[in-house]
Structure formats: C-alpha cells, structure tokens
Write a structure and sequence with these properties.
The chain is mainly alpha-helical. The protein contains three helices and no strands. The longest helix is centred in the middle third of the chain and has 36 residues. The chain is elongated, with a radius of gyration of 21 Å.
Length: about 100
C-alpha cells in the first residue's frame, strides 16, 4: 500500500474482521481495569480529603461538594467506586506483577 492510497475491504470482509473474540475481551478487560483503577484512586483521595476536612472542621468531600445537590447521582458515584474496588479486589492477583510473576 502506497502513502495516501486507501482501499476498501474486499467483498465479504469487514474492517476489523481479523479481531478474535479473545482480543476484544482482553481489550475490554484492560479498559475495565483502568476505569476501576481510576475510580478507586478517586475514592481513596476523596476519603483522605474527608478525613482532613473532619480535622479542619469543614467539608472536603469532593463528590458531595460537586454532586450533593443531586443525591441520586452522588450515590451512583459512590456505588461505582465500590464496584470498582470489588473488581480490583477480585482481579488483583491475576493483574498484579508483584503477586503474579507472569504479570499482565
């Protein structure tokens, strides 16, 4: 294929048809892992700020400050953080390079 040349897939083939279900599942699992990791970090930082805020006599709960006016959404964020923690807890040994010598 030359630079700037574009060809359509042959009849009966689709773009991306070479991806196996295993590759798609692996990609989905990596995405789930990263989303879970980010949510757990956000939750951990928020709890740390809650503790600091308690000592300072103020509310530093960022989730509450941002979403407190919509309690249902605030509770969904807390639920997602909890589910992310469960996901990481149960998948940790297989994903962790320290716990699993074969690594990711």
């Amino acid at each position: 294929m030359h630079r700037g040349h574009f060809s359509l897939p042959k009849q009966g083939h689709t773009i991306g048809s070479g991806l196996s279900p295993a590759v798609i599942t692996l990609t989905s699992m990596k995405s789930l892992h990263w989303v879970s990791f980010i949510l757990v970090v956000i939750g951990g930082l928020n709890w740390g700020l809650v503790a600091i805020g308690t000592y300072m006599g103020t509310n530093l709960n960022v989730v509450n400050l941002l979403l407190g006016s919509v309690p249902a959404v605030e509770n969904i964020v807390y639920l997602l953080v909890g589910l992310a923690a469960l996901s990481i807890m149960f998948s940790h040994k297989g994903d962790c390079r320290e716990c699993n010598p074969s690594g990711m």
